[in-house]
Amino acid sequence: MNEEEYREVAWTNIAKIADTDDQDICDKVYGDWADTYERDSNAIKFVAPEELAKRSVKFFRNDESSQLLDVAAGTGTLGQHLRTYGFTGIMDAIDISAPMLEKAKEKGIYRNFVCQGLHPDKSLPFDDNSYDVVALSGGLGDKHIEARCILQLIRIVKPGGVFAFNVQNRALFDGCRAEIKQILDGMAARKEVSYETMEATHYGTLTKMTGDVIPGLIFIVTKL
Question: How many Å apart are CA 141 and CA 81, to the nearest integer?
């Protein structure tokens, strides 16, 4: 296969995921895709994980005892970039796909692995105030990880800790971004969090879906 064929595989799988809110279908797509996910993501210049790592790590408590949860970790791309950009702490991974997590294990950068999807009405298996950092790249969307799930993720961040995530910054994700901002603005008004945003690239290549490079928006949320 050549680069064009890799891109075709990537966009076909992304379309399958984007078109369903069935967690079982998402799980199967990711499971079947695990072996070539990183190759195909590179072909479409899926730079969101690297952009998040590069732009957010300076906000983290960063020492060998700092604990980070990589949410929707997949094959461990974000974790790998966090190491590259200097994060030295302990990392755990959670993802819906067991085959994806098996690939992440091969990187040797994570301590614990949890195979579970995120749903706003299903509690995560972590205590309140468990992590210094929670990071999520590329997973948020109306038919993927719903905006309301950020409440579960903020719950498990320690006071003074950071929740760093990104979301696509285009019309298809307007509703998701608006709901995220509504949630965060409410929490900020109650002095529960503070947050800032940064524009970034999400996909750095021309795409079949839009014909343009896809921008992203990074959120840095500090739990007060």
Answer: 22
CATH number of the domain that 197 lies in? Answer: 3.40.50.150
Q: Distance (Å, rounded) from C-alpha 51 to C-alpha 16?
A: 25
Range of the domain at 204: 46-223
On whether residue 23 sits in a domain, the answer given is: no
- Tell me: the pLDDT tens digits for 83-97? 999 999 999 999 999
Q: Is residue 37 part of a domain?
A: no
Element holding 68 (H helix, E strand): strand 67-71
Count Cβ atoms within 10 A of the Cβ of residue 179 and give its class: 0-12 exposed, 13-18 middle, 19 or more buried.
Answer: middle
Give the predicted TM-score (pTM) of the model.
Answer: 0.94
pLDDT of 26: 82
Could you give the CA distance from residue 178 to residue 146 in angstroms, rounded to a whole number? Answer: 12
